[in-house]
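Subject: for your reference before the review

Hello V.,

The reviewers asked for a structural picture of the protein, and I figured it would be easier to keep everything in one thread rather than splitting it across files. Below is the amino acid sequence we used in the manuscript, unchanged from the supplementary table.
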Amino acid sequence: MNTEMIPAGKEKQAVQVTVQGGSPQAVYGFGLIGAWVYYIGRAATPREKVIGFFKGFAWPAFVVHALLEFLEKK
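And here is what came back from the structure prediction:
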């Protein structure tokens, strides 16, 4: 049973939502793949490759840390 009251002459209309903007997930995904290529590609031992795999997930932290060190030197 629908108890919602609609004013006379007004009908329900579908609301169209448009989402605009970029996709941060895509940027993080490309960065993740790039970090894996960088860290795993430079690894000499299997242990370093495993460490490089996990470092790939934390690449934004490394970028921010390097940026803050760079800004501190100026």
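For the response letter, the relevant points are probably these. The two ends are 69 Å apart (CA to CA). The mean pLDDT is 83.

Happy to draft the paragraph if you're swamped.

O.
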